[in-house]
Every structure is written in structure tokens, then in C-alpha cells.
Design a protein that fits this description.
Largest sheet: 4 strands, mixed
Radius of gyration: 21 Å
Number of domains: 2
Strand content: 25-35%
CATH topology of the largest domain: UDP-n-acetylglucosamine1-carboxyvinyl-transferase, Chain
Bound molecules: uridine-diphosphate-2(N-acetylglucosaminyl) butyric acid
Distance between the termini: 11 Å
Strand order of the largest sheet: 1-14-16-15
Low-confidence stretches: none
Number of strands: 24
Oligomer: single chain
Shape: elongated
CATH superfamily of the largest domain: Enolpyruvate transferase domain
Number of helices: 14
């Protein structure tokens, strides 16, 4: 891609990857045909589809709708060949244990940002009565019938909250998840489960109460818009200037991000059809600290760091969720960014313009942030391992070029 700007036009925001993946896993909870609407056509969704198909589920995609046909009998195995390609595969564990009382899931691999344990998922499920053994890289879980319990999470883990919620909906009795994650994708999953017949209280709070039911029914449901895709385009306008309407974006899911970007000097306004953003001048640096929702999401950070790279002044960035999530900084430095990182902290001193260079994408968000950095750079930037970006974005290059960015996918 080439240095670009200003950007102008309308960008449609797709369905949220991190919701769609969990809703697909949750569809295992009910025999029959579930349809999901607004499902992005991205590699991670395809991997989750392959995973469900390996268990005996039939999946068909028509545009942005997927139809998931779940048979009475399932082979409750998530093989390493698929789990290693996508860490989020671990969320099939809760639904499989709840519906079949057994599951074998390979230990996840996934993104390249540090160790990502699943101890909280397993401890929580154990409290609901599951037992686990760990052999040959697989976790085998068993439970006659899960029984509701009070589970206090050590940290509001998104994945652990989701696995527990999906297990609790078919458990006997009441489950209380304390210190639950509150991300919009968790609420989306809870709404989906409720539509399937589950009883869940406390949506959007850190205390979820789930009343187990005997059986759930398949349903049709629309996935919420992807707030991280929206953040990606917000950062593109931050570095290129211009005016975009992010069609479908939910500003109520991005309040802290919007506040930060306004502090930097961006003008943002919620409209009935989406979020309008306008940038006419160079932005000002701010400090950034990632936290669980409603704090500033760790997934936004690579985009905010990229915006800081060309903002006026210096900003301090603190990562509180994933210790190792700073590798893309070395790539930004190759492009002329002035960043000093140590441990969980980085200081970013804005420069006038980055300088195009060959760089490498290490994970989905880092890859997309390098695309944005390329738009703020003089000359050509070539991103290798761009397949990481395809895991989470439907036609990022096409959407960017439709509003004036000079970017192509080869
Ligand atoms: N953690 C544990 N033990 C556990 C679970 C988590 O120590 O059993 C730690 C993690 O190592 C991490 C922290 O808790 O330090 C938070 O992890 P969390 O479980 O909340 O994250 P996740 O469910 O693995 C999801 C998203 C990530 C996003 C995080 C945080 C999906 C598929 N992934 O991951 O999104 O960064 O929540 O919001 O929903 C992405 O989309 O590119 C992405 C990485």
C-alpha cells in the first residue's frame, strides 16, 4: 500500500468475529437448524465451520447468513489440526459437556502474543461437576450432568465467561458467574442463548445468573457489528484525515474508545445509521491503558498505537490484558515510528510521517494496524503473512480502497 489520504465515504461494518465464533459454538447446544445472520466471511469463521463439520454438523453459507444443522448425535472431538489454527476453538468445550457430557479438545495454540492459559475455563467447569484429564496434548472432559454452582472468576476472562455460560444453560439448577466479563460479545451470546430458551439474568453486568433448562431450541439470530473492525477504520481516518460513515457501527459498544479519540481531537457523532467520524488536523497524543470492558479493549491498542505514531506529542501505552502483545511495535519502528517499549509499557513519540517498508503481520490486529500504518507512510509498505489479517477481516483492502486508500491485496 501507499501513503494515502484523506479518506471519504461510507464503510459497512461487518458482523463481530468474536461474537459469531461463539454463537456458532453455542448452536451445538440445540438439535436442529440454527441460522446466523450478519456473519462475516472471514477465515476464523471458516475454521469454526470446519470444526463443527468434523463433529457431524452441516453448515451452509448463503451470503452473510450461515445455516447450521446440528444432529442428535455428535462426535465431541476438536482435533489439534483445527484448534492449533484458532485458539477460540476452546469455546466448544462448554457446549459439548453440557449437551453430551463428554468432550475431547486439543490444547489451543493461536495468536502470537504470549502464553494464553485456559485454567479459568477448566476450574469453572469443574465447579459445575466436570472432570478433566490431560493426555497427548488433548483435554478430555466428562460430566454425567452438569450441576449449577457459584463460580468466582479470578479475572473477567471473555472465553471463560462464555464457556461457563454455555455450560450452565443446560446444567441442573442455578449457576452464578461472579466477576464475569462484560464485553458486548458476551451480552450478544447471552441474548442468543436466551432466544434459544435459556434463562440468564444480569446481562451486561459482572454477575451473571443462569437458571439451567432441560433443552434448548434452535433459532435465527443476527450477530452484532464488529467494534474492532470499526476501530480499524477509525484509526485509518485518524492517520489519513477525511470523513467516513461507519455504517452499522454501534457507538454504545465503543464508548471508551470514542472518548479517547475525541481527546485526541477527532470528531465523532453517533447517527441512526452508524458512526460518523471526521479528522481535519493532526491529532494530539494521549495516554492509553487497556482494561476489560467497559475499559479500553486490548484489541484496539495496535490501532491506537499506530495513531499515536503520527500524532503530535508523546503518549504512554500500558497493556494490562496480554503481557506479550507488543511485537508489532518492532515492525512499526522499521517504518520510522519512535517507540520505546519495556514490559507492559511503551512510550510512543509522534513523528510527522512514517516511511513505507516491508513488514510482517504477527496476528490479526497487528496485521491490520500495519495496514493502517502503511496508509500513514511515505512510499510503499508491503506486509507479509497477511493471511493473519484475513482471519478477522472481510476484504479490508477492498473496503479501504473504496474510500480512497491506496491499498491492494495480492
Ligand atoms: N486467562 C488466563 N486463564 C484463562 C483465561 C484467560 O490466565 O483461563 C488470561 C489470558 O491469558 C489473558 C486474560 O486472561 O491474559 C484475558 O483473556 P480472555 O480469556 O479474556 O481472552 P480470550 O477469550 O482468550 C478474547 C478475544 C480476544 C481479545 C480478548 C480480550 C475471542 C476469540 N478472542 O480472547 O480477541 O483480545 O478476549 O478482550 O473472542 C482478536 O480478536 O484478535 C483477539 C485476540
Amino acid at each position: 500500500m501507499q501513503g494515502s489520504g484523506p479518506l471519504n465515504g461510507v464503510v459497512p461494518i461487518g458482523g463481530a468475529k468474536n461474537s459469531a465464533l461463539k454463537l456458532m459454538a453455542a448452536s451445538l447446544l440445540a438439535e436442529g437448524s440454527t441460522s446466523l445472520l450478519n456473519v462475516p466471511d472471514i477465515a476464523d469463521v471458516a475454521i469454526m465451520g470446519e470444526l463443527l463439520e468434523a463433529m457431524g454438523v452441516q453448515i451452509e453459507r448463503v451470503g452473510n447468513r450461515i445455516d447450521i444443522d446440528v444432529p442428535a448425535e455428535l462426535d465431541p472431538v476438536a482435533p489439534y489440526s483445527l484448534v492449533e489454527r484458532m485458539r477460540a476453538s476452546i469455546v466448544v468445550l462448554g457446549p459439548l459437556l453440557a449437551r453430551l457430557g463428554r468432550a475431547r479438545v486439543a490444547m489451543p495454540g493461536g495468536d502470537d502474543f504470549g502464553s494464553r492459559p485456559i485454567d479459568m475455563h477448566l476450574q469453572g467447569l469443574e465447579q459445575l461437576g466436570a472432570t478433566f484429564s490431560h493426555e497427548h496434548g488433548d483435554i478430555t472432559g466428562k460430566a454425567d450432568r452438569l450441576v449449577g454452582a457459584e463460580v468466582l472468576l479470578e479475572f473477567p476472562s471473555v472465553g471463560a465467561t462464555e464457556n461457563l455460560m454455555m455450560a450452565a444453560v443446560l446444567a441442573r439448577g442455578t449457576t452464578i458467574i461472579e466477576n464475569a466479563a462484560r464485553e458486548p460479545e458476551i451480552t450478544d451470546l447471552a441474548n442468543f442463548l436466551s432466544q434459544m430458551g435459556a434463562t440468564i439474568d444480569g446481562l451486561g453486568t459482572s454477575r451473571l445468573t443462569v437458571e439451567g433448562v432441560e433443552v434448548l431450541r434452535p433459532t435465527t439470530y443476527t450477530v452484532i457489528p464488529d467494534r474492532v473492525e470499526a476501530a480499524t477504520f477509525l484509526s485509518a481516518v485518524a492517520v489519513c484525515g477525511g470523513e467516513l460513515l461507519l455504517k452499522g457501527a454501534r457507538s454504545d459498544h465503543m464508548e471508551m474508545l470514542i472518548r479517547k479519540l475525541q481527546e485526541m481531537g477527532m470528531s465523532l457523532a453517533a447517527e441512526p445509521s452508524g458512526l460518523r467520524v471526521e479528522v481535519r488536523n493532526r491529532l494530539r497524543a494521549v495516554d492509553i491503558s487497556t482494561l476489560p470492558y467497559p475499559g479500553l479493549a486490548t484489541d484496539y491498542k495496535p490501532f491506537l498505537v499506530t495513531a499515536l505514531c503520527v500524532a503530535e506529542g508523546a503518549g504512554m501505552v500500558t497493556e494490562n490484558i496480554f503481557a506479550g502483545r507488543f511485537r508489532y511495535i518492532d515492525e512499526l519502528v522499521r517504518m520510522g515510528a519512535e517507540i520505546r517499549a519495556e514490559g507492559r509499557h511503551a512510550v510512543v513519540r509522534g513523528v510527522e510521517r512514517l516511511s513505507g517498508a516491508p513488514v510482517r503481520a504477527h496476528d490479526i490486529r497487528a496485521g491490520a494496524a500495519l495496514v493502517v500504518a502503511g496508509l500513514a507512510a511515505e512510499g510503499e509498505t508491503i506486509i507479509s503473512d497477511a493471511h493473519h489479517v484475513d482471519r478477522g477481516y472481510e476484504d479490508l483492502a477492498g473496503k479501504l480502497s473504496s474510500v480512497g486508500a491506496l491499498v491492494t491485496r495480492t
